[in-house]
TrEMBL record:
Domain of life, source organism: Bacteria
UniProt-recorded Gene Ontology molecular function terms: DNA-binding transcription factor activity; sequence-specific DNA binding
Pfam families assigned: AraC_binding, HTH_18
UniProt-recorded name of the protein: Helix-turn-helix domain-containing protein
Keywords: DNA-binding, Transcription, Transcription regulation
Record InterPro entries: AraC-bd, Homeodomain-like_sf, HTH-like, HTH_AraC, RmlC-like_jellyroll
UniProt keyword Transcription present: yes
Domain HTH araC/xylS-type: 190-288
Amino acid sequence: MITPVLHINQFKESVHLNDVYINSFSNHIQLNKNLINKPHSHNFYLCVLFTEGSGTHEIDFNSYRINPGKVFFLKPGQTHFWKFETPPEGFIFFHSKEFYELKFLEHKLHAFPFYYSYQNPPVLELPPEKLQELSMKFQEVYNEYLQNNLLRELKLVNSLNNIYIELTRVYTIDINVEKLNSSNYSNTLETLENLINTHVYKEKLPKFYADKLNITTKHLNRIVKKTINKTTGQLISERIILEAKRLIVHSHESLGAIAHTLEFSDYSYFSKFFKSKTGMTPLDFRKKYF
């Protein structure tokens, strides 16, 4: 069984509007509990702010604590699920890439650091005063979503953009903003990550991706090093391991079949590669996870 990919139109909502969904978090999980009670991914961008509750949020096999003030961001394709210890409250919104980028022609979602790269942390903790301020902004955009006023869609896009800007300012307090603003490098990194997502089963060498980008392998390494302080090879290996973990946990295939799916020459080579990167064999990982 492959992880289900959820689409915006599957989620119940109060007033229909294409490509965007906004709700209080408690209402969201009540309405959609049958969709989100197991690991899943999305085909859209998601942001959630917690004002109450505790538990854990697992995103691509990394576990994060849930508590008031936590904000989480997900890009399309990331696998996640929630596990709550006390009742959660807050706000959630998600939207397609087109919903945002068709309105802001000069500004792209990857310009926000939390959507810039899968390498950047998908979580932010707001200080108490900022939590109060952002909660009001989330409440305002939710109120607007529930109404059917004139220019509703335009106001929603502007309000979401305003929230993203405020979250970016908190997110980048301790980050070198100069690095984030290197638009050519950030565009290349985003294209590279998309190429790896598309071709990682077949293509595992940096040269393939450098050729696709019409640059040298050396220059591609320079870009990756400058933006996320890794090599292209590391980025590819991490993506292979992530895909392997997803298949090991979310599919019922044998480990040998998973090695074949990932186009390793045999299971032995796949197992050695997996252990060299994670410290455990695929079988150990499957046992540990469950």
